[in-house]
Amino acid sequence: MTVAIAKYQDIADDLRERLTTGSLPLDQEAPGGQLKLPGEKELAGEYSASRSTIRLALQVLANQGLVETRHGLGTFLLKRRTQVAVAMDQEEDWHGGQHAETALYPEGARERGQTTGRFQAETMLAPQDVAELLGIAEGSQVILRRSLQYLDSKPWCLVVSYYPMDIAGGTDLENARRLDASSSQLLASLDHEVLEYTDSISARMPDPIEMRFFRSGSNIPVTILSRTAQDRHRPVRLTRYIFRSDQVRLVRNRPARRKLDPGAHY
Amino acid sequence: MTVAIAKYQDIADDLRERLTTGSLPLDQEAPGGQLKLPGEKELAGEYSASRSTIRLALQVLANQGLVETRHGLGTFLLKRRTQVAVAMDQEEDWHGGQHAETALYPEGARERGQTTGRFQAETMLAPQDVAELLGIAEGSQVILRRSLQYLDSKPWCLVVSYYPMDIAGGTDLENARRLDASSSQLLASLDHEVLEYTDSISARMPDPIEMRFFRSGSNIPVTILSRTAQDRHRPVRLTRYIFRSDQVRLVRNRPARRKLDPGAHY
DNA sequence: CAGTGGTCTAGACCACTGC
DNA sequence: CAGTGGTCTAGACCACTGA
What we know:
- Chain A has 7 helices and 12 strands.
- Chain A has helices at 7-21, 40-47, 51-63, 128-134, 165-168, 183-189, 208-214; strands at residues 27-29, 34-36, 67-70, 74-77, 84-87, 113-125, 141-151, 154-164, 196-204, 222-230, 235-244, 248-255.
- In chain A, strand 1 and strand 2 form a beta hairpin.
- In chain A, helix 1 crosses helix 3 and helix 2 (40-47) crosses helix 3 (51-63).
């Protein structure tokens, strides 16, 4: 073992080494032939440590996304996931009328996209961040529409849209079912044609709802694309696309601004 | 206490409640008047639990970014940080010649930006993701330049640039010091004028180096903007901007693509 | 059912911090 | 130095899983 400070750290380092070099006896269990580590009791014996210490070591590896423990089954080596590229510049509504909720899918996957029937629509008071992006007062009423989107029957994206009440109140946007037209078409018919978008990208740890939807551990962040749509006067819609950070990267092209002038100051 | 399953969860819920409503006796200690929770021993008595159980509860709150424990001092309530907007569309080089490393700063803060003297330049073999974005073979030699950027003397951004060896080998890019000109100017002088960028945004948990630089806990992700610069033929540079996700959000504007045609299929 | 991880305890000692 | 959190132990019992 190495020169770290705490015993559980030493054990974690040793296990990581043995896992990545493959020199740890791993059982093949479970479907998908996932690799199972020795039990905690067994490791405790092997390292002359208490089970608590072993658990601390395994917790370190789990926080690094290297292993995963499942109650009643054991601890399993995780395989690296590869991220999928999602273009930020695709039109937010597509298949106008057929698929009417905003969506972002990886290239070539649009046709496989399956939005479940679970739509929600409710009225709420705008929290601080939503109010700021919509340019309204904190605590104003907004209509919230939520949809859970799956791709190949696996959780893909959580979409949450906010509309100022004075724009969306009394319209189809208040109903918890699919829209007949795209939301941008609907806004246009309300004399709020969308002319410009502002995108804001951030990331954070998932909340319990997101963890349940994505079936992800607490060690995987979510990436959030917040898209504010504006008509000629003001923001009319805020849509948040929430992805698993280990599954998605957001991509976009653009030309370089201009020929570089060696002496220029910007 | 509530209806959760585990005692430590109940305690965590209760503490969260009391912390957010302010009904927990908090000491004001430390500079900055940070609020200190009762000690673990004290909480153990109060909840009739062992200290281990209290520690589990506090771990839950720490993972949620609500509190922070400091060895030898105590557990402290964290105040919410607000994110700063960083425009994605600013030119990557600025103050041509004066500040020659690529940088992204929040609006109005460019002049406060202070890149420390710590530059690194080294040669390495391209890992899989870098090779892919640069369009070269995995394991090819690349030159890596790294800089640590501070804003108001606080850690702001880690910048890592990769150059294919056949382009940058033997040039100033190989030296671990500031460039005389901007890297894009230098590339242009090598007949690799940058004509287009591709941005790719992702997030993940920080590695130990990043945690140390940002002085962040293991519960705060990093947001990574990977920018590939291309000349007329091929990628010539990959720059990664690494930020604390709780400090930064990446922002950009764009016009809506076109007037919406109600019957259109895209 | 047997085997696994999840929770919990009581107590010990170490390492860090500020005075 | 006293007080705090950090590590570690030995053992107990619970809860989940698959056969």
